[in-house]
Structures are given as C-alpha cells and as structure tokens.
Amino acid sequence: MGSASTGGDPGTGGGDDGLPPTGENSVAYTGCSMANNIGTGYKRVGGKIMWNSDNYQTGAMVVQNWTNPSSSSWQLFDQKMASIGGKDVVKAIMVQICILSQRATDKELRDMVNAARQHVNPGTHIYIVGQPVYNAGHDCFIAGTGGADWTDMKAQELAKDTTINDNMSYLGKFILDNDAGEVSDGCHASSPKGENVLGEQAKAFFGG
User: Fold this and answer.
1) For residues 127 and 28, what is the distance between their CA atoms, to the nearest angstrom?
2) How far is it, in rounded angstroms, from Cα 29 to Cα 52?
3) Predicted TM-score of the model (pTM)
4) What is the pLDDT of residue 5?
5) Between vectors from CA 125 to CA 121 and to CA 128, what angle results, nearest 5°?
6) Residue 18: what pLDDT?
7) Rounded to whole angstroms, what are the CA distances from 53 to 8, 76, 180?
8) Is the pLDDT confidence value at 206 over 90?
9) Checking phi first, is residue 118 left (phi over 0); if not, alpha (psi -120 to 50) or beta?
C-alpha cells in the first residue's frame, strides 16, 4: 500500500500543509459493506481519525444508493455525523465507489459526489476511492469480472476531471490478498484478518 495519490488540490481542511486532518472522527466515509470492512478494521487497529462502522452499517449501499442527497443512505450518514458531534467535526470525507455487476454511469458517479458535498461543510475535502482490489488473478464476483479494478480506475478518472475536481483527490488503493486469507467469501474482507489489513491501510492514509 503506497502513499495516497492526489488528483488535484490535496487540502483537507486539516491545515495548510495538504495533509489529512488529525482530529478524532474528522474523516467521514460513504460506501458499501467494503467501507464497513475498512471502518471495522480501522477501529480494531486503534484508528480514531476516520469514522468506524459503529451504528453505521452501509452494507449493500452501492453508488445508486448515494446519488440522491435525501436517500436513506444519506440519512444514515447524517445520523452518524450527528453522533460524533456534527458536520463541523468532519474535515474530509472518503467517498467509495461500490458497484454490483451492473456498473454505475458517469452521471451517477457525479451525482454521488455532488450529494456528498451537500452533506458536509464547504471546503471539506473529498477523497475518492474504489472498492478494495485483489491479488492478481482474483475477482470479486459481486462486482463482476474486473469490477473492483473498474471502481479504482473510475476513482482516478473522477479525480482528474477538472469539471468536478473541486477540492477532491484520488486516495489510492485498498488491497486484499485472497491467497493470504484476507478475503472471506470471494469479495469481503475476512474477520479479523482482512479487516485489520484494510484498517492498517486506512491508518497509512489518514493516521491513527
């Protein structure tokens, strides 16, 4: 897991140095069960800067669940945000591209980003990221052949799009090794091993 790549201005509201914020719960996230895997592992390995999955179960929430700013997914997000002290606590948000075998359209991806902006303060940095990718030769059957890699490619593409790249950057890759027992069912992180691996990767991006 390398350092985070950026697709534009890396400022996060955490300071003028372009680094992620450092306050507890200052990095929010959206996504699906894969995001839950990250949040669960991050808490288990001692992370406090990014949200964890406590009372925030985003399972099966793919891109289409996040395109409408009034959706039940965003209502859940707002409830989690209220529980940690409100939007002023949040200085950055990790927006994860999650798909089923039917991939998202470019409009749906843009709508998801626009919805995210409506739920955080102006100036809040967006880190765009795909689903975890896997060791060579392994695919997540839920996302379809090549689906996980496609979400990572689209995250990089969105970050470079100057028409929407307003304080948004590509975070980097979360990576799972199926051959090392880090995957439980062909897609999701195993518990606790795979979740902890993702949690450590989140700490590499955001700190503890």
Assistant:
1) 10
2) 9
3) 0.91
4) 36
5) 125
6) 56
7) 28, 11, 24
8) yes
9) alpha
